[in-house]
Structure to design on (368 residues):
């Protein structure tokens, strides 16, 4: 069995560590590229959202390298993510690939189906090996997020443009090679210090980044939006990190624990029920950004994503009533770099001018 998985931001680092520690042969897809997107878009339904197309391209490139088993997460609710596995399985079968698909559905309050999939997948792997693999993978999940968060702080403060991005790339490569939890922790501590040492100024603005998890976490998909904003002097506060998503949705949801300041409570009055995906969280995090006095919000959504369409229809009201500007960016395979950069620059310039003038009623600057 030669296992592969889809890319999503830096997920390959902890995923590869987990599968290798469990004793499996892993063939990760090559880094997502224009070829990946072209392959996925060519064979996916035209109306499918961008993450499905990119994931399909990931699988095709991994299968070219010899992979024969694909693992991915499942989903429930109105979001089409729950259908990804079945749709992609049929597409690959129509192209002549008879690969094995294993879909790990979210447990909710029932571990039965999840445990059944685990038994099927990890046949012959001892519980001790699984625990060891889980521990180092979790350490790397947390480490990746801490380093990324430190880079978002450092980039708008760096003295030499591009130094943060270069250092982060080196730190992530070292983390990928780390073979023990002690080494991971040491690298995070040292890496965070190195990133903070790059600072020599102060950011012009502070923006929250909200939206659908895949397009927020994946730099290729959002066209390096965090880096672009950082080089404009903007400190980006990402509202979604993988380690936090795992803690909240795989642990707290299973235990039926609702954290204080949860999305339903923050969004109440604007959106009073779940709409699938991260639609509710998008509204809630925009409210939270306003109450934490961020200068604005950038909302990312894949084209045709229903939960984010619902959120985008509500955000102008949130923007006006909470007095915070919101820029919604919709992404698909046709999104052009020049157009995206122009919109970001215009949004940032307007917020900087507004901040200098100390104007009120900032929420009137809601763009879609």
């Amino acid at each position: 069995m030669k296992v592969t998985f889809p890319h999503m931001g830096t997920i390959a680092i902890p995923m590869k560590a987990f599968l290798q520690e469990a004793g499996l042969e892993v063939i990760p897809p090559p880094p997502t590229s224009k070829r990946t997107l072209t392959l996925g878009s060519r064979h996916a339904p035209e109306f499918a959202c961008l993450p499905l197309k990119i994931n399909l391209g990931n699988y095709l490139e991994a299968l070219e390298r010899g992979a024969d088993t694909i693992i991915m997460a499942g989903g429930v609710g109105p979001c089409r993510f729950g259908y990804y596995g079945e749709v992609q399985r049929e597409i690959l079968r129509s192209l002549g690939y008879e690969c094995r698909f294993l879909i790990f559905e979210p447990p909710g309050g029932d571990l039965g189906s999840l445990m059944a999939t685990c038994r099927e997948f990890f046949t012959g792997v001892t519980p001790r090996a699984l625990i060891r693999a889980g521990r180092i993978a979790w350490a790397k999940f947390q480490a990746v997020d801490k380093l990324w968060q430190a880079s978002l702080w450092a980039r708008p403060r760096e003295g030499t443009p591009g130094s943060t991005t270069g250092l982060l790339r080196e730190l992530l490569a070292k983390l990928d090679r780390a073979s023990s939890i002690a080494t991971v922790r040491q690298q995070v501590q040292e890496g965070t210090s190195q990133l903070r040492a790059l600072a020599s100024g102060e950011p012009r603005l502070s923006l929250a980044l909200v939206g659908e998890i895949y397009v927020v976490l994946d730099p290729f998909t959002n066209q390096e939006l965090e880096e672009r904003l950082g080089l404009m002097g903007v400190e980006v506060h990402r509202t979604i990190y993988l380690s936090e998503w795992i803690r909240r949705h795989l642990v707290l949801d299973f235990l039926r624990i609702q954290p204080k300041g949860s999305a339903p409570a923050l969004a109440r009055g604007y959106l009073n029920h779940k709409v699938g995906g991260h639609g509710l969280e998008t509204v809630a995090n925009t409210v939270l950004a306003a109450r934490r006095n961020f200068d604005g919000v950038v909302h990312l959504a894949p084209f045709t994503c229903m939960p984010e369409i619902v959120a985008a229809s509500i955000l102008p009201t949130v923007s006006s009533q909470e007095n915070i500007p919101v820029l919604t960016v919709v992404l698909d395979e046709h999104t052009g770099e020049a157009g995206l950069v122009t919109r970001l620059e215009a949004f940032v310039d307007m917020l900087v001018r507004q901040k200098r003038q100390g104007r009120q009623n900032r929420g009137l600057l809601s763009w879609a």
In short: The two ends are 46 Å apart (CA to CA).
